[in-house]
Amino acid sequence: MTLTSPPILLSLIVFLPALGALLVGLSPKARDELAKQIALAFTVLVLALTVYVAIPAPADPGAIAPSGPETSSRFVVGAGQMQRAFSIPWIESFDIYYALGIDGISLPLVLLTSFLSVLAMAASWSISRHVKAYCVLFLLLETGMLGVFLALDFFLFYVFWEVMLLPMYFLIGVWGGPRREYAAIKFFLFTMFGSVLMLVAILALYFSSDLNRLDKSQLAAAKVHTSVLKEHDPGGPPLHTFNLLALAEQGQAKDSPFSAELVWGKSIQWWVFLLLLVGFLVKAPSFPLHTWLPDAHVEAPTPISMILAGVLLKMGGYGIIRICYPICPAAAYELAWLVCTLGVVSMVYGALAAMAQKDFKRLVAYSSVSHMGYVVLGLGVWTITAQTGMSGDYWKMGMNGAMFQMIAHGISSAGMFFLVGVVYDRVHHRDLDRFGGLFGKMPVYTGVSMVIFFAALGLPGLCGFIGEVLVVLSVWNYSQALAVIAAFVMILTAGYILWTIQRVYLGPEYKGPHGDALRPMTRRELAIAAPLLAFAILLGVYPKAVFNYMAPSVDRTVDALAAWAAESQDPITGAIGSGASAPPGSAGLASLRPDGPWKEVEQP
Amino acid sequence: MPLLNQPVSLSHYLLVGAILFACGIVCMATKRNAIGVLMGVELVLNGAAVNFVAFSAPFLRGDAELALGLDGHLMTLFVIVLAAAEAAVALAIALCYYNTHATIDVDQGDELRG
Amino acid sequence: MELARLLPLLLLSAWLLPLGSFAAIVFAGPRMGRGGRKAAYLATGAIGAALVLSLAALGAWLWHHPLAADSQAVAPLSGDWYTLAEFGKLRLAIGYYIDALTLGMFVMVTLISTCIHVYSIGYMREELGEVTDPLVRGSDGGPLVRPGRFPRFFQYLSLFCFSMLGLVVAGNIAMVFVFWELVGICSYLLIGFYIERRSASTAANKAFLVNRVGDFGMIVGIMILLGGLGTFAFGDHLGAEGKVEPGIFSQVRPASAEHGLVVPDGLVRMAAADRLAAVYASMPSADAAEEEIARQIPQLRRAGYGYGLLILAGLGIFCGCVGKSAQFPLHVWLPDAMEGPTPVSALIHAATMVAAGVYLVGRFYPVFAPEVLLVIAVTGCITLFLAATIAIAATDIKRVLAYSTVSQLGYMMFSLGLGGWAAGLFHLFTHACFKALLFLCSGSVIHACHTNEMTEMGGLRKKMPWTAGTMLVGCLAISGAGIPLLIGLSGYHSKDAILAQAFSFARHAPAHAWLFYVAAAGAALTAFYMFRLWFMTFSGKPRVEQVYDHAHESPAVMIVPLVILAVLAISAGWTLPGVDWGLPELLEQARPLGTAEGFPEARTIAGLVVPAEHHSHAPAVHKIVSLAAFAAALAGFLIAAAFYGLRLLSAAAARRWFAPVHWLLVHKWFFDELYDALFVKPALFLARQAAEIDRGVIDWAADGSARLCLRIARIDDWIDRWIVDRFINGLGRWTWRLGLALRPLQSGQLRQYVVMIAVSTVTIFVLISIYRNYAFLP
Which residue, A582, B73, C314, C517, could crosslink C372 as a Cys pair with Cβ 3.0–4.6 Å? Predict the structure, then answer.
């Protein structure tokens, strides 16, 4: 047990911020500056630790053997499976374990979280009320966020999910703008609504799961605790579990315990998928569960907006890819149309709503709705069909694109909110119609803003492009109509972003209130904007920086689902194979499908 | 009086115990003087003690050859010690009570205040 | 070094040089000399070096593949430089596809860019110091004074050159899209260079948005191709296992079918998805199903599956080209784009970027089905005529040139659509030379007069002899002046080739003969509006004395590029006798495989035959067309001379006679108003509705459910207070009362207690005895 052994290292990453919160709490009264410095130091420390984890280890297959000691504390790039996973008994009587692990899907998000936390904390210097409490809550929030991305136990995941909720509520409700109470409660209730559904789904999965159906090697691959291995008895009574990997193994098994019928002719996994999906889509946020977002963003202080848009929204997408799809493949296949349609509707709707906004921050918030629509769409494009010869390549492209879009949106939206905050600090309003001509007073700021906004617009060479284009291009083989609509959103996005740039930055002179306060960016503001700018460009020209880590894990997820689809080929492929494109006169062919338990499965 | 015609048996002892007990109860119920009440208590205790002794006398028991038969004596000794302790404590209470109320009439002591 | 390694290296360096210059100016621009003066030298040096490298590349190419009168197609070089992302067999990469067309474009772009960079050093000089912008009011009511932005201009120019060269060298359609967008954003930045002017930023937005509309179509086309073919790449290249993976071109025109147009398997599968699903459902395993599908695909292809998708893909790609090349109906952005500085108009909006659409159509030629080609031809034809008519009525010198550009681009599209592949691209090259020249001349005039309005000019010939002379060359070139059947300026050769192809097409497909007549009429209109422009500007008497007095010839740094371009405008169309060196021969080397012999009759449109281009070289065709074109141009020139040069006829009177027509033309056929009403307003309306739905429906529902919860909570509260609480309180009260009732028993009388104990003990004893029937009871 050295400092770099998995349980210690990952736990340090998760709980260092909480430790920092404790330290801030113990710091002397009326020393606001000190509290901020401690908080910043801890976020930096966490960033350093996550970066340490991310430094690639030499690709030594022994280092990531499914079981046995893991010699390397670094991340093995190119390996898709869960790495440095461990499991420690927590509440054994309910089979709850303290299980953490990291793979290519979570690592980029963990890095994004720790990175944005540093920037957001640095952007918190303008907070002047109840500074100590602010820092404590901020650090607790970071613990919650990191925990969600690292948890491998569904119950633990849920705990972290809730841990993150409360600090956010207070951070919006205490340090927010004039309507902060309304926004905070709205945020809290929406998210709570989602997490309650999630809890129901968690319990449904728990009570229908049975580890005895898996063999020893699957259990070892799922990193279950050794005590469970002892209890394992293929003929014995059901052995329930919260282990996400083990649940996924069962969900993808040929005779999955989750395929049993629950109510109204739908299987357990159908209901579970739906419940989880709603829970995650609230967070994503997707139409029609998105209205908490604009209010929360408008009221939240700048650094909290950065975290909210940069990290919290990503948990929705992360939950879908980590939990919904692997555990409920049959339901995912059946409901792919719902996921994709919601994604596309969010894209269109968010873009349109953004176009009509008068408040700068609201506009950026709606742009987040639109951009997260790409994520939801990319995750859902089930292209393992007869049309593509059962190839998962297009889905890999879509899912990788969606994951990349999450990272890219984390950078660009955090940047946009920060930049809005910079100008708000000066002129104390966000009315788009009273801006204009900022270029003359703040040329560097305008330059930075244009790059970040262009990144959001999806300009090639900047981070937004890669994700958007991969997602949009992957959709055609799933549904042609959705693909065309998704492509159409490009126009709307360009419309609202260019119009915003014109209204805010271009034009002869700033004529709104507090014109004298428009000073160029300070050095501290530049130091926050510069890394965002650098990453916006770096990820745009070298997307492999992310894909190298991410793609193996995402591809593995898709391959597993493709293998599942091939295995269930008998009843399913007939339905799976029917692409959305039906040439005229071929409708009668649908009747050729064999009748079976899957006959109700229809493509959108 | 058939009892008087018979040889001394357990019933006679029990009768004595019962009379002692009844006298004690009557004494406790009728005496207003705390000392009198105490004496009633002693009578009740002694009535019980007589019973214990009677029950444990070897020649009165049917199972004498089986048991050692000391349990009743032990209880009696215990009762006597208890009675002594009780009397000491009760007299102390009475003394205290007299100090505050200048009487030891128990009918006066119907309130739970010192 | 062998050609396959040398050429990519040379072009890569030529391509990346401007990027380096861009990066350097971003970081160090304002510190480069006074006002950033040296940034211009850096940018010009970079593009000049790129020109040298491009010329070297072209030289190396010609060394290996010398030109001849009967040049044959040469296999292109293709490969990847850098992979952005990879998913299974799908790959997003930065690659190259080099053939004679690529090299020609490289030389053309770098050459014209170099000229324009040099010209801009003079033209943008006032940006070195503080600039007074008379078109913008400052807060004090006077004209706005702002710091100059000299380095920024060259920074954008460098970025543009990089993007444009990337677009030309692109080896796959995704990379084309990447640089397509990048040139778009450069165009946006440069149109909006005068950011203080609202008209400029609006025009920039319009340009980008209209282009995005085109890109929307393009991305749909890319989606179909990627979805069906599984690759972005144009040419074949080596896959991961050393296996050759066919590119788009060889999948659509496989060598096995002698490069004839074949609907690729992927598109057939896409169209017949339901049938395939049925196959999968009926087969025991995936492999067996795939075997069966492979057997069925030829039948399905014959039945027409996938052909529609191929057409759709072609139309999608063309849609992107419509946007970029400002074709009808997306031509509206280009005239507004004239808000940018004039060198920008010359470089981006005349010579290079707007020609990218034509270039892409030329590049994608093998993929287009005959139906798509007809759409291209008709679009080009409508555009060339529409734009020419608007140019007649315009009075802003740059707008006349802008519409002229639209019209000429229409000619190119027209030609490509009719099967005149080489003719259309030939016109692209010659047009780049003379249109850049014309724009730079107009820039020189504007620089001197500080106005764009031709109605304020006149008689400038005497003050600006060089400008007038070079512009005359440009006008002659664009009108197609020459000695029929012998030799002429560059425009003469290329326009003749286009009209000859149109004539040949009309003979092969008589139903579409009207295309030829419209194009010939367009030639007359071209000559008319160009000479109208020249006469109004340079001849006659000055219209506004003040403007005339201020006018002066431009400095040498601006005149030298004009002269170079004038020489090119004269000679670019020539084929050197003896060695047969000329642009048409170069282009023949790049002709896509399988298109030399024309296209077979279209599947869906009867009688549509796209003829091979060599038919138009037949003397019978050539002679008629040459004379007809000359006559048309001459007619246009004579009318212009009659109205504006010699003033035999009154333009004002003509305007009165044709008042309704003039009204229509001055308002540019009302396209802006139409689009505003059809698209912009509804989009904004929808946007407001979406925001309203958020407020009015979703939030209403969310808040409503919250309020409902509150109401339920209140009812719950009432139940709590009036039912649950009362029950509990009642219980408590009764217990209290019971306690009170029992209180007298607790008298504190010790003796009483003793009696009670005794009595109750006895009572209990007796009761139990009765209950258990003890024997001692009677």
Answer: C314
User: What is this structure's pTM?
Assistant: 0.84
Total residues found in chain B within this entry: 114
- Distance (Å, rounded) from C-alpha A562 to C-alpha A390? 8
Q: Are C539 and C643 in contact (CB under 8 A)?
A: no
Phi, psi torsion values for A158, nearest 5 degrees: -65, -40
pLDDT digits (tens, 9 = 90+) for C588-625: 888 888 888 878 777 788 778 888 888 888 888 888 88
CA distance C619 to C626: 10
Q: Is the ipTM of this complex over 0.85?
A: yes
Q: Write out A451-484 in H/E/C secondary structure.
A: HHHHHHHCCCCCHHHHHHHHHHHHHCCCCHHHHH
Nearby residues of A8 by Cβ (< 8 Å), 6 or more positions away: A1, A2
The DSSP H or E segment spanning A94 is none
Closest Cα of chain B to C739: distance in Å? 18
Q: What is the Cβ-side half-sphere exposure of residue A54, based on CA atoms within 13 angstroms?
A: 23
- What's the CA gap between C12 and C50, in Å, rounded? 10
Measured distance CA(A334)–CA(C425) in Å, rounded: 51
B23 touches chain C (CB under 8 A): no
Cα angle: C148, vertex C154, C158; to 5 degrees: 160
Q: What is the pLDDT of residues A221-278, one digit of tens each?
A: 777 877 777 777 777 788 888 888 888 888 888 777 777 777 787 888 889 999 999 9
Query: Tokens standing for C753?
Result: 């207690």
Q: Do chains A and C touch (3 or more CB pairs under 8 A)?
A: yes
Residue C733 has pLDDT above 90, yes or no: yes
A273/chain C closest Cα distance in angstroms: 23
Token pair 């700068």: residue:
A360
Q: Read off the DSSP letter of residue C96.
A: E
- The amino acid sitting at C475 is C
Q: Burial of C558 by CB count in 10 Å (0-12 exposed, 13-18 middle, 19+ buried)?
A: buried
Output DSSP code: residue A212.
G
Is the CB of residue A539 less than 8 Å from the CB of residue A108? no
CB–CB contact C749 B110 (8 Å):
yes
**What one-character DSSP code corresponds to residue C144?**
E
List the structure tokens of C85: 């992302």
Measure CB to CB from residue A387 to each of C198, C270, C684 and give the nearest one: C270
Nearest to C101 by CA among C616, C489, C567, C592: C592
Q: A209 — alpha (psi -120 to 50), left (phi > 0) or beta?
A: beta
Among C24, C168, C4, C40, which residue's Cα sits nearest to residue C116? C40
Q: Is the pLDDT of residue C583 over 60?
A: yes
Using a CB-CB cut-off of 8 Å, the residues of chain C touching A504 are: none
Question: Residue A89 in 3-state DSSP?
Answer: strand
Strand-pair partners of A497: none
Cβ proximity of C537 and C446 under 8 Å = no
Given a cut of 50, whether residue A574 has pLDDT beyond it is no
CA-derived radius of gyration, chain A: 24
Task: Tell me the helices (H) and strands (E) count for chain B, helix number first.
Answer: 4, 0
The answer to whether residue C713 neighbours chain A at the CB level (below 8 Å) is no
> Which residue in C747, C748, C754 is closest to B29 by CB distance?
C754
Please name the amino acid found at residue A573: T
| Chain B to chain C Cβ contacts (< 8 Å) | 28
Backbone angles phi, psi at C93, to 5 degrees: -135, 165
The DSSP call for residue A57 is: P
The domain segmentation of chain B, as residue ranges, is 9-108
Cα–Cα distance, A332 to A380 (Å, whole number): 8
CB contact under 8 A, A466 and C84: yes
Determine, for residues C690 and A349 on separate chains, whether the beta-carbon distance falls below 8 Å.
yes
Closest among A485, A355, A369 to C683, alpha carbons compared: A355
CATH topology classification for B9-108: Helix Hairpins (1.10.287)
